[in-house]
Amino acid sequence: MGISNVKTSRDLSSAIHYFGFSKAHNGHKERYVSSRFVNCTEQGCIQQTKAIREYFGKEKNVHGLTFVFSFAEDEIGLDDLDKQEMIMDSLRDVMHERFGNRQIGLFAQTDGSGQKFHIHAFVNSPDLTTGKLIDGRLKLHENAREMLSEAMSRANIEDLNKNVSTKQANKTNIAIVKAKEKNPNAYIWIEDMQNRIKSVLNDSSVTDVKKYEEALFSKGIIVNVRKSKKTESGFACSYSFVDNDGKKRVARATKLGTDFQFESVQAFMRQHELDKQQREIEERKKQEEFDRKQRLSKREVRHEEMHQTVSKRSEIDSKPLVQKIDKSVPTNSQKPSEKLSEPLRAVSENKTVNNITENVKASRSENMASEPRSENPLLNYIKTFKFIMYSAEGTKFPKLGDVARTLEQHATLSVGKVLTDKQLLHFAETIPFKIPVFDEISNRYSARFSKAMTLSERFKNQRSTNDLKQKADLAMNDIQTKSTDKDFGFER
I want to staple 452 with a disulfide (CB 3.0 to 4.6 A). Which of 286, 363, 432, 457 is the partner? Predict the structure, then answer.
């Protein structure tokens, strides 16, 4: 009978190495007999999956999922190569459909101690486009079982285990079906309790246990969480409420189904929290893009107005210089050119076209430079200067990883909400941190020789450095202007 198992992995690189690149158990040279990959390659899958996690800053999270699919000799034999290739193709397709745009790998093996054909598979957690981690509901054993059944069906391989009940969740469904068969309109309190809890599990605002308890209480349900040695998390839960008949009902999560057990509830809450953070980041990006377009639009309008003004003035001055003067009109003692801006004065004084163009460019550059994003230069620095952030002791922040961001982005990820400009300025002036550099020898980022200081201190140091550089450039230009070849000991 086809058997499936799924586990979360915090060291996916080691798991992949074991699946495909360690020594075979039966002494053969090859570890696996067949393989399939999605969005990665056979020889580069370890490095490629790691690179994606590092790019999205997910190295501190659960790296991904690992699967084992095992088959009876009557289903797929050790020597049945055709069936082996068919199940590999169908299982790859099913996993790709379930997990979307992620990196997937499958290794078929025949070297196990049980002498059974089996498949090891992995899924890297981050989505290749958004970086979003795997939905917690896809980590359940029921999902792995469903994938295996679907893959065997597509490959036309009889599943000898299809009629075997796997989890107590199926017992609940059978009880509901039997009751409905007797009376289609009958009130079933278990079904009522399930529906109330499901509405809370699907609520995106439920991101922790406290909110989960409060949301259930609003639905008339009380949840009791207790320690348990029988579960992976070490906790189990039960639910109680007063049904529509006025009777108090109590049910353990195992009686209601796997979606209601504590591990699944935690997965739902983690996914809601990740979705919330992703929405906040996307909203901030949209606002930043909108502000950028607004600034560009204002600059383009000013440039167009200046261009039109210069064009009109050029048309006026292109007329003959000798004209009949109406002596009845009193003359102004002030020269017309004194009333004009620098580019227009150049036109009135008959300067060359090249000079006029250069003056217009200079005026435009000056206008653009005089338009800062904010009146506070430190605030601009907070929102534009990107760096990798370590603690003052030189250690990584779990949520931040080795990703270069602005202080605004670092702070938003750390506290889980959008901060005001006042809060950002407070962080910049009070929180010391280190900026690591990449060490080629150890092949990792290190803050060993970095000095801890606040972003405000770094900003002041940078401004001081820029001032010194500008003074040096001015001094060098002055030397080049006033010096001759003789000053340097040269003769023409």
Answer: 432
